[in-house]
């Protein structure tokens, strides 16, 4: 297991106070006659500008953790602080954007209007909205589909719209729940590069759920490995690959070492 | 391309279409002939035979219209259904010598419709425009505002919704006299009755609609720190639309009938309800039914307009994807 | 022995207006004739409709209804005339300054719809006034409004004159706080408008039935028995009004009160009985011919209705069947 | 227990507010009538407007004391044929039978509308038209048909109640039946599910929210329908019969009392539907 | 590009008539003001017992092709035959099971009841339904969640329920649209092995959409590579790896060659 609070990374200093801090967070769901411990005693500190990936078996609590951070769910116990605020305050100050696991597009809005939704909600100046939304659609390669309605898109295209929507308002903190899960490798790699560029250029902090070890390693400054039932943080792996990442990063000898380390952790958790 | 393939599909059915059209025509002719030859004043001989032929023609006609309807997406089947049924009613009434003072034949109604057209148009203005329409709009506005409050505050949902059902349980026959007493004999008292009867369907539907928003959409808006207003307009209102339109559709006919019935309880002498009441008392059921036909036509047009609006506004809804 | 089931449709809810029938039942006059009479209360349907469709065998109604129905092809037949005089009135507050029919001009009059508006219309016509009930008149002299029978809905707030039967609504108006000295009652009959009211009728189907409900008797025989027993009941009721009221009261429950919460049911029905007796004890009754339709009055009623344009032509002779009354009383009608 | 309180508290609070608002509303509504009565010299046992508003014989809104008196006199004894509770139960019975009939017919029509576009095009306009025909016009026809066979009493009322109530069910349910997720319809298609199965396994469950809103609207419609039917056709009991009689007897306060009972019935019916919904569709309740 | 009709594989012979035959199939969607050519002149023959993967960029028509085969959509032009039948006939004879890209679970049914749905529809004997459904839930590792309702499951768990549902009635032909997209690597590998075992033991024919080249190579007898807009079959790659596949298959030198070939084709199509 890797030391938890000893990490180095490109664009944040370890002396600043954590941007996100998770303390002993536990989440228990009561259903019909049983309880599901979706998260047990989770602890995690995230510095500003980090790129954190969450990886772990299906149903281990990744989504639950993101939802708790995003103030969409209240943990059974434990404390959360984001930028020194409660999750509610953070949410209300529009500190983050969230890409849900399902696209969650609105049937009644065209692709363009779906992407413009956060801009409308947050009262961006009218002139900019269209421009910004179109820019994001270009980023995800859907500029030609702006007039379509969601049901007229393929699964991967819907997911990309939802990514464009989350990026549109340029939030400093990004929660992304398997955003690239339904995409082919090439589109995925392109979007990986775009995301990294955005991250680098804007200094965003990203918390990213993925099932792809190589994606996690390629993108992240640290990878949080989780185990299932009860959902726990099994370990946190520091990704000390040079920044900025590029195509060569995947060839780097450390890449494989880290990937292997994560795989081991995962296997350990799975057993 | 597409039309070609449709044509191709239908070709084997061409002969069947021909047969059904023939049957439709036959049914019309028989029914018309029966009606034409029977004069209501003279006695009818061979009643049983004629009854059987008439019912049989209706049966043949309906079946044939059903066959015609299978290959058409236009108004023709509805129109044929209409003509067959009307001819059947005409023939049946004549065969059974039903007096006009009880049920008039459709032909008498048509004549009355023509003769009374000016009076009826003025009645329509009172009943539909002043009473039904104004009451409809007022009811919607009040109903929607109440629904918003109810959907917003759990307290109101528990506290007000049950009372809202009280409103709709007050029969018009009890409400209308009170309204006349309170507001007067002129049209506003009827518009008020219409508004009251329309409110409940609106509230029930709109509240349910507002509460049906997808949890994921609500989460999304929450993640934006969206104000309740934004959540309301961006998520809840669109999801409530199909429900809202259901309520509107029901309210189209409800408002019309409420206005008509409310006129039975005091009026200054205009309106379809007044006309129906006064002419029913004189056993002039041809004018009564002429007024009902006018009301029905308005009802259908009103309903269709709302239906068209629904398609326009909620075209995205699953119910419009085939 | 087996009684013949007969359904009699009353024109209104149970009250002293129908005292004679209730007395006939209570005293066993119907039974004595071999009849088991069931009274059907009224709904929105007119008695004409229930009788024509066979839901009821006999009915009571006003002569205007009977004749307009007949004109529209409904085979209804007059068999006996109970009230020999019209009880229809228009009531105004004395304080309103309406002292004579000519003063109606420019006023609002409340009329009952459904064919009950004819006496008011006839009265207006007699004084050469037009009303908003004629759709052909652009600026009517009188605005007529319709409302459902209860005078308190419109009077005295919304109309200047209100329709009232001597035996019912007049007392209801008194019940509203306007005693007889505060109101002016314009009786239609005082102004020559004597459109006859409660009568007994049946349908041609019933009367032409040779074997009424398998009783072995014809419809006409049954009709005659019904009329005979009814008239006997009426004679008794009119002579023993107190007892008649006692017979009526249990039949109408809450609605006997007639006028607001503080009204007394017995008082109201006593009033009604007295007024109804006046309508019964008029015309032919005074000559010992209770139940007979007076030919002259009938002719003048028909003329009035034709003048008003309500009847397009004289009703056929078959609209009235004098033979029933003759059978019932053993007298000759002419 | 706690939740029971949570549920009833708002109801009670609103009830109190209504009672508190009732007084001023009553005074406001009755004042003109009282004024006019006094001006026209009516003798109603009071001298001033503020006094008279409580004792009008034709109040726009009855005073609470009058209402209480009326409720008492029409309620005791509760099961007498002239009492409101007894007649309310009669009407409730008719309305429930009517609602059941309406549900059966409405459901059937809704299914046909969903199954066949041509049926919809041919029949929907007729259904709409049927709702614009006042009962006064239907009643004689019903009399022709049923009276000839001696059918009287509650059945024609239930029929008329059904006639008014089926329409909201048709509209609501047909929309509901059309609203399942297209992907789920595809799924059933891959199973080659029969039409019946598509309905029972998918369309019906998916239409539940629409169904129950429709039922609520229909239940009050059925109530009104049976009352109107009682007024329009020959009836020996029922709220409608009481309404008709008392309105013709000018008993304004009795009318209010009867309306009160009618409203009570409406609440009972809607509550029954709510209960039914909780029993039939528990998955809606479980999600917070 | 690989020759289209020259392939070898474990459990089908190339002389038998094709189980699935796609001839010149084109699908054009008309939207608002434009047309999308989702599929253009696709030709494909599939022998009984084959395991075919479809791979291609997001929005290239994979789902559309499956839906056409499954008779959920009528192609604009072209002919399809399945077991010598029209797609409609095939569907009516319950020839196939379909795992949709989205889970499409029914909110009002518990997990167990969702899996039992096809068994109910197809009138399986009542006694067997429960048993069969539980067996399938065990296969996808969700036996403990049978009483839960769909909204109480994580994204990956929902997807697994939908897989269990499709397998429950044991269809001879399986259409699977990115069935494992939302699963972590280990669960995915487990399910890969289970699917292969089922395929081998029951002789099913599988048509499988995936974005993972290695998954495609590992599972398939042939891989169909598609390109986007207009959606076309770019090439069909024969996977001549030995059967039965096992953990070692991934180490096989041919594995990388084939994977590279597919990647090339994909890149070519993407450009
Ligand atoms: N609303 C809920 N009610 C009950 N249990 C829930 C609820 N939401 C989540 N769970 C349970 O909590 C556990 C964690 O779920 P979560 O969605 O966080 O998993 P995940 O790590 O995101 O998995 P995946 O990769 O499959 O999306 C699961 O076992 C799930 O069944
Ligand atoms: N109902 C529809 N109306 C209009 N266009 C559609 C419709 N369905 C699909 N399309 C279009 O057809 C194309 C192919 O879609 P399809 O769903 O087959 O893609 P896919 O290969 O499955 O992609 P993904 O991997 O993202 O799921 C897309 O461009 C999509 O926008
Ligand atoms: C007690 C009483 N008797 C007669 C009338 C007048 N009237 C007799 S029958 C009828 C209408 C029936 O359709 C009306 C209005 C009345 N109002 N109250
Ligand atoms: Mg998840
Ligand atoms: Mg797809």
UniProtKB/TrEMBL annotation, chains A, E:
SMART domains: AAA. SUPFAM superfamilies: P-loop containing nucleoside triphosphate hydrolases. The lineage of its organism: Bacteria, Thermotogati, Deinococcota, Deinococci, Deinococcales. Residues 20-253 form the ABC transporter domain. InterPro entries: AAA+_ATPase, ABC_transporter-like_ATP-bd, ABC_transporter-like_CS, ABC_transporter_ATP-bind, P-loop_NTPase. Keywords: ATP-binding, Lipoprotein, Nucleotide-binding, Transport. The keyword Nucleotide-binding applies. It comes from the Bacteria. CDD domains: ABC_NrtD_SsuB_transporters. One of its GO terms (molecular function) is ATP binding. The keyword Lipoprotein applies. This is Sulfonate ABC transporter ATP-binding lipoprotein.
TrEMBL record, chain B:
It is a multi-pass membrane protein. One of its GO terms (biological process) is transmembrane transport. The chain crosses the membrane at residues 18-36, 48-69, 75-93, 124-148, 160-180, 192-211, 243-266, 287-309. It is found in: Cell membrane. It comes from the Bacteria. Pfam families: BPD_transp_1. Residues 125-306 form the ABC transmembrane type-1 domain. InterPro entries: MetI-like, MetI-like_sf. The keyword Membrane applies. GO terms for cellular component: plasma membrane. Its main location: membrane. Keywords: Cell membrane, Membrane, Transmembrane, Transmembrane helix, Transport. Belongs to the binding-protein-dependent transport system permease family. This is ABC transporter permease. The lineage of its organism: Bacteria, Thermotogati, Deinococcota, Deinococci, Deinococcales.
UniProtKB/TrEMBL annotation, chain D:
One of its GO terms (biological process) is transmembrane transport. The chain crosses the membrane at residues 9-29, 95-115, 122-146, 158-177, 221-240, 252-276. Keywords: Cell membrane, Membrane, Transmembrane, Transmembrane helix, Transport. Residues 88-277 form the ABC transmembrane type-1 domain. It is found in: Cell membrane. It is a multi-pass membrane protein. It comes from the Bacteria. The keyword Membrane applies. GO terms for cellular component: plasma membrane. InterPro entries: MetI-like, MetI-like_sf. CDD domains: TM_PBP2. Belongs to the binding-protein-dependent transport system permease family. This is ABC transporter permease.
